[in-house]
Amino acid sequence: MRVGLVCPYTWEVPGGVQAHVRDLAEALIGLGHDVSVITPCDDDTPVQSYVVPAGRAIPVPYNGSVARLAFGPLSAGRVRRWIRDGAFDVLHVHEPAAPSLSLIACWLADGPIVATFHTANPRSRAMSAAGPILQTGLEKINGRIAVSEAARKTLVEHLGGDAVLIPNGVTVARFQQSGPLPGWPGDNGAIGFLGRMDEPRKGLSVLLEAFPAMAAERRGLRLLIAGPGDEREVYDRLPAELHGQVVLLGMVSEEDKVRAYHSVDVFCAPNLGGESFGIVLAEAMAAGAPILASDIEAFRRVLRDGQAGALFRTGDAADMAREGALLLSDAPRMAELSKQATAAVRQYDWATVGQEVVQVYETVIPASGGVVRAGEQIG
Fold this sequence. Notes:
Elements: E1 2-6, H1 16-30, E2 34-39, E3 51-53, E4 58-62, E5 65-69, H2 73-86, E6 90-94, H3 101-108, E7 109-110, E8 113-117, H4 125-138, E9 143-146, H5 149-159, E10 164-165, H6 172-176, E11 190-194, H7 204-217, E12 222-226, H8 231-236, E13 246-250, H9 254-261, E14 266-269, H10 279-286, E15 291-294, H11 297-302, E16 310-312, H12 317-328, H13 331-344, H14 350-364, E17 373-374
Helix pairs in contact: 1-14, 2-3, 3-4, 7-12
């Protein structure tokens, strides 16, 4: 079948939704489907052959973060042409409640539409207030998917309706087949973090507060941080004597991201909230990294209440330091967590998740066939 995927966030900036859309596209192509993705990005940005740029995005505060969205006449025109030319059997929009391409696509399109909801935010005043406006687009959706129970609950409470629960996917083989970065993890051990350094809910501040205590317990312990942000702010939060034990990679390629997971003895996910699933956990699990994570609901579910990764009290740097020091000194426990994580992540492999998504498509495509059509006006 011909599938049109709509990503609301800019393609150039790493994020869970962008990774989800990319991996879903490639999983569907692997299953023999014809796929096109439209997403905010500049026309001169290097993209995969299946990606169609919808123009430059602008930063907008959204869900406790800063999302880069595209919304306006230029974006609407490109979405309309893409739908018209695509002749899709099904349109699959992601995060249609965000003020970006997915909502535009819902307003413009007529035909089979599936939506995936990623956001977990039980106290979203913005989503509640915008509910009546959103409904004109959301009422066209024929099939709904939520990536987690938390995302499903957010959908039900703010927008009404229900959704099929299909988790985020991870291409397990991609993360298994790699080695560490040169010189890592080293003889004295290493812990790692991956995420935007300047996004408070990712919890890097908690890790930086906990690191001196962990380093005091294990002399020479190193910290590897991958992701965009201000390096000076990181070093300003740490004692000068520890600066030499911290390495900042900045924004990394997909290949180096995988290698980073293999470069640490323990991968840390100190997120403070706003996560509906935790794709970084699934990636780290696929790489076989022992995990230390905050005990937010989404992470507890993915890590099977501590069976597939160690947990600490969310936002509690002292508890993180304590749990981290214990884990680093217990090689058998780290090996067992790695084993359990590798087994648990198999349910999230795209080979399985992709088939589940296709089953949803099949329920909304009419038996008589037909294609998604583009309207001339929004609404």
